[in-house]
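S1.2 Input.
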Amino acid sequence: MSQPAPFVFHQGTQPLLVSMPHAGTYVPPALAVRFTEEARQVPDTDWHMERLYAFAKDMGASILAATHSRYVVDLNRPPDGASLYPGQNVTGLCPVDTFDDTPIYTRGDVPDGAEIAARRDAVWAPYHAQLRAELDRIRAQHGVAVLWDAHSIRSVLPRFFEGKLPDLNLGTADGASCSPALAQELLAIARSAPGYTGVLNGRFKGGHITRHYGQPERDIHAVQLEMTQCSYMQEALPFSYLPEVAAGVQPHLERMLKAVLAFAAREKPARPVAG
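S1.3 Output.
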């Protein structure tokens, strides 16, 4: 397998960009040989994101999906690797341990500063350049842009949270990354979804992408949705997509993205877009 580009991109027609920074599974062979057998399975992937959100393309959204595993470089971390949740257990820009707190690398063969910088330049930087360019294009064309950062995670992970995670975890950086009215509208949809639980700015408040790109004062709004994987897939190997399970949650995801587009239509400024 030849090395893929850092991302797959589809340009849509609506003022919505769906970002999938943890959807990638590719690990370069020279790196994979340094991984443990467990890590080669890339268990901490946000699996099947493009399939789960296939309807978004039909709605006119732009889609940006990572190809490389987060074990290569985590696209939802700041470029300096600073912690987004000080005092809490987190993984870094180039993780060295799994969500289960087991080592990714055999014999402690972890990346040094130069290797981290090289991965950042080769994979992280192009993804973020594309994300920035598309948000700016959308805003220039429509006067407003909304970034939906799509994630999923196992529902039970003692390293990061107690008990079972709510199913639909919306994050807006404690209100800083998007309109409070939009956030409340999305929360109402999540909470009204029968059989699912929803929360706003709980354990997951939005990662680097949500916090960095969400600038409501510039008509760029950003929302992260962290979903439980049991809502649409098998949480253990072989991490299979479960279409009949996914069909239960997809209408609620679609309602949320329709609410985003309706919000964008209302917010579209009558004035020319400033820089």
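S1.4 Remarks. The chain has one domain: 7-267.
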